[in-house]
Amino acid sequence: MKITYFQDTDTLYLEFNNNPIVETQEINENTLVDLDQQGNIFAITLEHAKSLTDLNAFSLKTIVAPQLASSL
């Protein structure tokens, strides 16, 4: 997963895999979704990101299922 913020255009780009993009769908005026050949989400583009998100509060949390935690 790769997250890129383009400050000059206030655009946030979240890329989930390396598959080729075959289609882009507009969800609304600020959100685009890129799809791969299987129809899976490849990436999400958020225009005007500062007004839609709190970029300074970014965090990543990993939650392990209880049954898996005991085997770690």
From TrEMBL:
Organism: Microcystis aeruginosa NIES-3807
UniProt name for this protein: DUF2283 domain-containing protein
InterPro entries referenced in this protein's UniProt entry, alphabetically: DUF2283
Lineage: superkingdom: Bacteria
